[in-house]
């Protein structure tokens, strides 16, 4: 199967954690809640702008999320100038989905949380060469059925965090019918954008799903959530290639969101 350029465009930073996915093809329903932007902290004084060093101390680290390996983003986060939607109003979505903080942050940092695959004690080692084609494909899908999430923290001057979050919320509605874009010259198409119910952490948040056009391999849902904690935004981007290939629902994992929210309190 041929890997979809849309998946690469929309989740390069996430997909690169699964090396097998880079040489194979890959292809969520959620309650619609395009912009859960109820401001719970409007009366609070503005928080100070954080430096990259300070954000590095606040972002999730190894051991913070049970059941997940946390480390640096394999492949890195692409440069903002390399990621553009054909329609500029959809840029905040494409930026969020590629691990780039929306808006104009003063500082940012990112980490990757990869779900640990639990091995069934009854599993016996089997050579891939001995598998029939159907069994090999099933084993491949199972091996890739794990959530990989890129977490990006960004700090903003003034009302920059509020404005950046609003730009994402506005884009969810404006780009609902889908959009196209490119990363480093490679184009991708997304057929649908739908709001989802957020985890409910932070002062306000926006959660959404983008459906990728994967051609003959079907569609691939990609999930994201952007949460404001004072003048800091936490952006979560999750892909599960195995689930996408088997049409199994998945979402931004609650343990990752909760662990990061706890460090920002």
Q: What distance separates the N and C termini?
A: 45 Å
Radius of gyration: 18 Å
The strand order across the widest sheet is 1-3-4-9-8-7-6-5-2
What profile does the largest beta sheet have? 9 strands, antiparallel
**Topology, number of strands:** 9
Give the % helix: 25-40%
Oligomer: single chain
Q: What is the general shape?
A: globular
Structural class of the secondary structure composition? alpha+beta
Count up the helices: 7
Provide the residue-averaged pLDDT.
79
**β content, as a range?**
25-35%
Order of helices and strands: HHEEHEHEHEEEEEHH
Q: Which spans of ≥5 residues are poorly predicted at pLDDT below 50?
A: 1-43
Task: Walk me through the structure.
This protein is of the alpha+beta class and 265 residues long. The protein is 25% helix and 26% strand. It has 7 helices and 9 strands, in the order H-H-E-E-H-E-H-E-H-E-E-E-E-E-H-H. It has helices spanning 5-15, 52-58, 91-97, 133-143, 160-174, 241-246, 254-263, and strands at 68-71, 83-85, 107-115, 148-155, 179-183, 186-196, 204-213, 219-229, 232-239. Strands 1-3-4-9-8-7-6-5-2 form a 9-stranded antiparallel sheet, sandwiched between helices. Strand 6 and strand 7 form a beta hairpin. The longest helix has 15 residues, at 160-174. It is globular. The N and C termini lie far apart (45 Å). Residues 1-43 have low confidence and may be disordered.
What topology does this entry show?
Elements: H1 5-15, H2 52-58, E1 68-71, E2 83-85, H3 91-97, E3 107-115, H4 133-143, E4 148-155, H5 160-174, E5 179-183, E6 186-196, E7 204-213, E8 219-229, E9 232-239, H6 241-246, H7 254-263
Antiparallel strand pairs: 1-3, 2-5, 3-4, 4-9, 5-6, 6-7, 7-8, 8-9
Helix pairs in contact: 3-5
